Amino acid sequence: MKDIMGMMKQVKDMQARMQKAQEELEALEVTGQSGAGLVKVTMNGKADLKRVAIDPSLLKPDEAEIVEDLIVAAFQDAKGKVEAEMQTKMAAVTGGLPIPPGMKLF
User: Fold this and answer.
1) Average pLDDT over residues 3-26
2) Structural domains of the chain, count
3) For residue 73, which of 13, 34, 44, 68 is within the disulfide window of CB 3.0 to 4.6 Å?
4) 25-69 pLDDT tens trace
5) How far apart are CA 83 and CA 34, in angstroms?
């Protein structure tokens, strides 16, 4: 019975840590960039896009396709940063417990 109580406390503690980690991720802002900083996107830790900044030198009608590609590349850069941060937070929350592949806690 004592083991079950200890395990329940661990689960409750992990739930509290997970809630805190989710709040921290939502408050987190990362910026991805491409084209040597000519295009920047900012997103939160849940990968919600918040801002797009485009250097005025790119705003020429005949270069629209280049700008579009740079936006996608900047988004992917930011998304990779968010995923890395999520993995770090998850490792801290689970304390190294193995999580089945494909299981998303956030």
Assistant:
1) 84
2) 1
3) 34
4) 888 899 999 999 999 999 988 888 889 999 999 888 888 888 889
5) 18
Residues spanned by the domain of 44: 28-85
Token pair for 102: 């494909």
How far is residue 96's CA from residue 76's CA, in Å, rounded to a whole number? 28
User: In angstroms, rounded to a whole number, what is the distance separating the alpha carbons of residues 89 and 24?
Assistant: 9
Asked if residue 70 is part of any domain, the answer here is yes
CA 66 to centroid of chain Cα atoms: 25
| Percent above pLDDT 70 for the chain | 88
| Amino acid at site 98 | P
pTM for this predicted structure: 0.62
Question: Would residue 74 count as lying in a domain?
Answer: yes
Residue 14 forms part of a structural domain: no
Question: Dihedrals φ, ψ of 33, to 5°?
Answer: -140, 160
